[in-house]
Amino acid sequence: MTVGSQVKTCFSSIKSVEASLQMLAEKTYEQNSYQAFKDAEAIITDVKNDLQKQVIMLSKEEPQYN
């Protein structure tokens, strides 16, 4: 497995985690839990955005693996 495919797999997983945190935040009625989910979601969104940049960069460096 190439580095590019590993980063893409990680990116997909992070997107799934982000969606799960959004869903949990929407379903909770307790303010502290809601805020904890939203804080975690913000961190995961930052990680997702960084990984997306890496996916783009790696796809340019490793075009044969796209």
TrEMBL record:
One Pfam family hit: DUF1657
Q: InterPro entries given for it? A: DUF1657 (IPR012452)
The superkingdom listed in its UniProt entry is Bacteria
Q: What is this protein called?
A: NADH dehydrogenase
Q: What is the lineage of its organism?
A: Bacteria, Bacillati, Bacillota, Bacilli, Bacillales
